[in-house]
Each structure stands twice: as structure tokens, then as C-alpha cells.
Amino acid sequence: QVQLQESGPGLVKPSQTLSLTCAVSGDSITSYYYYWNWIRQPPGKGLEWMGAIASSGSTYYHPSLKSRTSISRDTTKNQFTLQLGSVTPEDTAVYYCNADFEYWGKGTLVTVSS
User: Fold this and answer.
1) Taking 90 as the threshold, does the pLDDT of residue 68 lie above it?
2) 89 SS3 class
3) Fewest Cβ atoms nearer than 10 Å: which of 23, 40, 95, 97?
4) 12 close to 95: Cβ distance less than 8 angstroms
């Protein structure tokens, strides 16, 4: 069974870059079975898909976030990373990583505030 764990700062200042890491165990992030996704849920709102990285290393982004989002991976550590630039308070959300929407991390709250 795949297990995922998000980590990163819980507080980010406006205009800075939010950076989160998803550590994966139970399978390799180069496994062809999965797309590795980042999802977020702002307070009181629904889930929003942000982007994904495939086993090949190809990346895919939500069109509205593409200009300030980057997803990368470290295959030696079996983890993948989300970077979201120029954050505003509207980026405050619980951020989740998942494997093909089948396995999910528990999520981590990131607050954007000065």
C-alpha cells in the first residue's frame, strides 16, 4: 500500500513561495502505475487539483495556476515537491498529495499571512 506524507512550513508570507514536499513509501514514484498529484482545499471550499507529475517525469498543471506552479521530484528520496510562487491569502488551504487519487496524504494546512 502506498503511503504519502506532506511536509512544509505552515505559514508563508504574501508574495513568497510556498514549498511542500510529499514523501512516498510503499512504491516508487517512477512506477508507471501512478500520477502523483497535488490538491488543495481552501477553507469552506471544494478540492482543487493543482498539478501532477507522471512516472516519466512529465508535469501537468491547472491552467489557472500554471504560471506560478512548479512540481518536481527527487527519485533518490522517493519524494515530489510543489512550489507555488507569489502567494496571496487566497492560497491559504489544506494541501494534499495523492497517488492517482487512490492513496492520499493526510494533508497539511498552509496559511498565507503577514
Assistant:
1) yes
2) helix
3) 23
4) no
